[in-house]
Each structure stands twice: as C-alpha cells, then as structure tokens.
Protein: FecR protein
Organism: Chitinophaga eiseniae
Amino acid sequence: MDINNHSYGREDDLPGGAGDDKEKMISIVRASGNELLSVAEKAGLWERIAADITQPPVRLWWQSWKVAAAVALLLTAGMGWWQWQRTQEALPALVAFATDQTYARGDSTMIRMILGNQQQLNIRNTRAAITYQAKGTQLRVDSQEVRQELAAGRQVFNTLLVPYGNVASLQLEDGTKVWLNAGSRLVYPAAFVSGRREVFLEGEAYFEVATDAARPFSVYANDMKIAVLGTAFNISAYREDIASQVVLASGSVQLEAFRGPGKTAAPVQLSPGNRASYTGGDGHMTVDNVNVAGYITWKDGIIVAEHTSLLEILKKLSRYYNQPITTDARSGNETFSGNLDLQKTLNDVLDIIAASTSLKYEKQGGTIIFKTR
C-alpha cells in the first residue's frame, strides 16, 4: 500500500474500525515525539495496524504481537529522533575548527605551531618553551620572536602539535600556563575574547589557569568539557585510550559531557586529589582519590609510581621517548614503585625498571618487550 496516495486533513480523520484501540494508538503516536512522520504516513501505518486488529479472533494473539511490535517501532523511532536532536546541538566554534583539522601527530618528528591556517613554525627543540605577549600579537618561541597579525573582531585559532619524543610549555595570552606531553595537540585562540576562555586538547596537558572571574576557562577534551575559574589540574585524553582522566591538584573544576552518550548526565564537581575517569563510548564517569604527584610530575621530567601498572608506565615511556615498548602476556600484571628520571636515556630508565622487578627486556624488531626472567 502506498501511503502517499492517501489524503487526510487531521489526525482525527484516521480510518476507524478498532474503537478504543484506535484512540490508544493515536495517543501512543502523539506521545512518541516522532515529528519525522507526517499525518499521512501515520494514517498509512494505522491502516495496516487496524487491518490486522480486525482479522478473525482465531489469530488475535498474532495480531497482538504485531500491534506491540508496531508500537515499539514507533516509540523507538521517536526516542531515537529525540536523542539525535540532543546530540546535534551546534559545537563551539573552537571545537568545530579543531575537529575539521587534518594535521596529524605523526606528520613530523618536530614540534609545530600553525598560526591560524596559514603560517607554520617548525621548532627543533624537543623541549620547547612558548610565551604569548601583547594580547596575542607577539609570541616568543624559545629565543625567537614571532609576530602574528590579528584582525579586529575576528577570532583566530592557533594549533600546537607536540609529536612523540617531545614536550612543550606554553603561556597563553591571559597568563595561563600549559605543559603539553608527548603526542598532544592543543588548539587555542591567539587572543581570548571577552566573556570566555576556551581551548581544545587531544593528548595530555597540565594546566595552571590564570584567575579571571569575568572569563571562565574551559577545556574541551574528547567528549568532556572541564570548566574552571583558576586552578591547577592534569588532563589525559589520548584518542587511543579507552578512558580520559582529569586529576585536580588545586582549586575546583566541573566536568560534563558536551556530546556523546554522557551528555544527559549531571555535571560532576571535583575537589583537590580527585581523579575523574570518563569513558566516551558509554558516557560512564567515576571519581576516586589518587596521589596527585603520580599524574603531574611528568611536566618536571619525572614519573612517580606507586604500585602502578607496568603497562601504564611503559605506555607513558613509549610516548615520551617515541619508542614502542610493551610486555609479553606473562608479565602484563606486573607493577612498579619508584621514581623514574626522564632526563636519563631510555636504556637507563629501562634498566631501573628491570632491576626493580622480576623482568628483563629485549628488542625484537622495532619494539622493546619486557619478559619474565
């Protein structure tokens, strides 16, 4: 039956034949929120359902099943449309810009700055220090002075790309300090506009946010939004990791999902010493207490471990030294406690781990593998 060949002026004009059942069905259709179906389409669906309902009683159980299936279909469609609408709200301009970027962390072994979508700076220092001055029109990259023209009334987004094997520190135009770990990308305005300060992070960064009550500071990372006024915290939001983590060192931050499955959940407030873990795939967030030093001392060139999973430590070392490192299946549950000085060579660091555990390591192809002795 082609429902487009039928014309009905109102929902009340739907064909009859099912008495109270008809009124119940109309109520269900209205309640489902399915504005994607026209009145004519609803009428066509009703005709097919009503025809089944009015069949001989001997098949009534079969028709009841069909009615239930049709109702479930309408409700599912309605709920699906409603959820879709919830996730289709306009993204902030900064997030939309960062999402559309095609720059990849593996494109280069050098730190890169992209000023707007135009000028690109390659930084050979693997421990770069960058400072913005003069309301974003002037920046210092190590010992080099760089000027950036900013058009009045138009916000310009800059990008800092830190590949594996590198780290960088950045002072934004407002005085906020950011330390970027290996394998990270930060997108930020050259100069913040009045009313808000927003940046986008992929990877890991430690923030010391300059206090400015008139302009709240927000970090977008994966599907999370972290809002602060002035505080210090660490975010680890690598795309390849299952969960993103926020660890609060001081002050207070509020977390919420700005898109994805967790969008309908209430915001979560963190206190110093709290760690929030957020899984974007299902929108699940947990909060616990941790030793903050184990999550922020990387910016000072140290890993502090306290019964920490060896796999987690090796993942950090792999990014920091740009060297694939893993364990065999038998060694996957090992833990490590102690301090690792990242100013030392990779072999020195691996020797300390091997001496403190029951493991040895060897190189197979391009990968270092820890194994049981």
